[in-house]
Design goal:
With 297 residues, the protein is of the alpha/beta class. The protein has nine helices and 19 strands. The strands form five sheets. It has an eight-stranded parallel beta barrel with strand order 2-3-6-9-12-13-15-16, surrounded by seven helices. A hairpin with a 5-residue loop joins strand 4 and strand 5. Helix 1 crosses helix 2 and helix 1 packs parallel to helix 8. The radius of gyration is 17 Å and the shape is globular. The chain starts with a strand and ends in an 8-residue tail after the last helix. 51% of the residues are buried.
């Protein structure tokens, strides 16, 4: 088990709203400020989602670039731009059958803002959100297009998965085809099963099964939704993994107490230290992941 743990902060996401938690940062200046505070508490990666001026979801590269530049002006945290997008705004296409479809062409723009990494969501599932059923269609051909876009931009994929099949199918296939270099960084999202058809709940057995399914030379990160966040990330530490926390996944610090991103990061770092481990700096995270130095992306 490595002694250095990478803590990722996911400050915004593509679904949460300020109505749910006024602490949620949605605009570039807000997101950058929250990331900087989280960095000071020990976050080494920022997993970013962009929002339009009306707070709706987007993968607009100019908005991403605005966020990225504001953060880089103040710290060396690893920047990871999402290609998942979200459940509103530019990400939705209304279909004649009454369903909505996630806009794949918009998702590709998440690769185009000069980030260090890009989140790769290479699966097909249904996102049930806000009374809408949103079909996220990523068949093998689109997986290939998205992986190629990431590699062509010179950035590293964060392979995001919601079930063991996501690891065993397209992620493994694309890794075997050479779309990444080791170590392969795989983020497991658990507890999203209430909103995502095709996702898995959190349990000890499910997490250990997903770890067992990882390709050789992989390192893993665990994210979990809502009340699953604290036990799942703590278990991940015990199993030698890295962790993600933040308001993208969880609005609450404790029952009835709304969180801030920096509170969730600070608690995670405290648990890491209590377990006799150390949290990785941004420079150490770059070394662990095989990333280029900041400023050379």
């Amino acid at each position: 088990m490595s002694n250095k743990v990478i803590v990722t902060v996911a400050p915004t996401g593509g679904m949460a709203t300020k109505a749910q938690n006024p602490n949620l940062p949605t605009q570039p200046a807000e997101i950058a400020e929250s990331v900087i505070r989280s960095y000071r508490e020990g976050a080494a990666i920022a997993a970013l989602h962009a929002r339009r001026p009306d707070d709706q979801a987007t993968c607009n590269a100019d908005i991403y670039r605005n966020i990225n530049d504001r953060i880089r002006a103040q710290c060396d945290i690893v920047i990871n731009n999402s290609t998942g997008g979200g459940s509103s705004g530019d990400m939705l296409i209304k279909r004649p059958d009454g369903l909505f479809e996630s806009n794949f062409e918009e998702r590709l723009k998440g690769c185009d803002a000069g980030a260090d990494m890009a989140t790769f969501d290479g699966m097909t599932f249904v996102d049930v959100h806000g009374g809408r059923e949103i079909v996220v269609v990523t068949p093998p051909s689109r997986c290939e297009a998205l992986a190629k876009r990431i590699i062509d931009r010179g950035i590293k994929p964060e392979w995001e998965v919601f079930s063991p099949t996501h690891i065993l199918q397209d992620v493994t296939r694309l890794i075997q085809k050479g779309y990444d270099k080791p170590p392969y960084y795989i983020n497991m999202v658990l507890g999203a099963d209430r909103g995502f058809q095709g996702a898995m709940p959190y349990s000890h057995d499910i997490l250990t099964a997903m770890i067992a399914a990882l390709p050789p030379q992989s390192i893993f990160c665990v994210s979990a939704i809502g009340p699953a966040q604290l036990p799942a990330t703590t278990q991940a530490l015990l199993l030698g993994g890295h962790v993600r926390v933040g308001l993208e996944d969880n609005n609450y610090f404790a029952k009835g107490q709304l969180a801030t991103n920096e509170q969730l990061v600070a608690r995670t770092v405290r648990i890491i230290h209590e377990l006799g481990l150390e949290h990785a700096s941004a420079a150490e995270a770059r070394e662990i992941l095989g990333l280029r130095e900041v400023g050379n992306a």
